[in-house]
Amino acid sequence: QLGFAVYATTNRPMGGGNTRYTKALTQQAQMNLLKECRARWCRATVYPKSNGDLNNTQANGGTGYGDFTNRYINWINLCIENNIKVSTCLIDSLSTVYGNIGGGTNTSDINSATETDKTNAYDAGFALGSGFMSRYGYLQLRPVIELSNEIELFRDILKEGNVNGGLYASDYFPNKVAVAVSYFKGMAEGVKSISPDAIITTPASSGYKPLYLYDLLINEIPIIDWVNWHWYSDMQANVGAGNFPSTGQGVANIFDFLY
Asked: Which residue of 21, 48, 177, 211 has the fewest CB atoms within a 10 Å radius of its CB?
């Protein structure tokens, strides 16, 4: 059964200064802001190496983070102390997998999606998921793990200029999709191999109608617990103005549509 959750706020850099996500100079200052807005959840985005290690990996907000392992561990502990739940977004290594296959740009597909390609993708995803949880899974009793962020955009899976917003297979690059599904299946099973009680979410999507991709992910990865769909204010404004792309489903509101 898929769960549904709304975050009270998000928090990517986990403290660290003047970035596009927060101007809080310390993690405690960031926590104070979260408590001020009565947050119950926050999101921590991390950029692990292909083996799941966070040591000195670059994070959103810049390169001056130092040892990101300590930053992440300290932030999780601070959230636990303040009774704030954390969803950890693990940024994938899919671009490396695509690069190994060859081809593929923001306007074209990768060269192939053979069984070997998909097996290699699965193995890469498993290594990242299991590696991360073997290092940091102990921090929470039941961690929430997001299988990366807005892959249809950042991994150029969704075709530019598509007219259906992600509703149909024709909106996507087929080889990229096939390899991505294998990768995230490996990543999810890697997480569960170390932390069986972890809650797994789909990769986040910012698309209006990512239904084709989500149907594939949910069908191929049945251990997914939650759908992770970013719904931005401009999208809601478009729905209110009647500009939401027609689905033929008589949508009364976006939550009915997603359900």
From this structure: 21
Cβ distance 148 to 89 under 8 Å?
yes
Tallying the residues shown for the chain, one arrives at: 259
Alpha helices in 82-114 (DSSP H): 94-101
Quick one: which H or E segment has residue 144? Answer: strand 144-146
How does DSSP assign 11-46, residue by residue? Answer: -SSSS-SS-SS---SSHHHHHHHHHHTT-SEEEEEE
The pTM score is 0.86
Buried b (16+ CB within 10 A) or exposed e, 74-101: ebbebbeeeebbbbbbbbbbbeebbeeb
What are the tens digits of pLDDT across the range 172-231? 999 999 999 999 999 999 999 999 999 999 998 876 677 888 889 999 999 999 888 877
Q: Which of 90, 82, 71, 89 is nearest to 40 (CA)?
A: 82
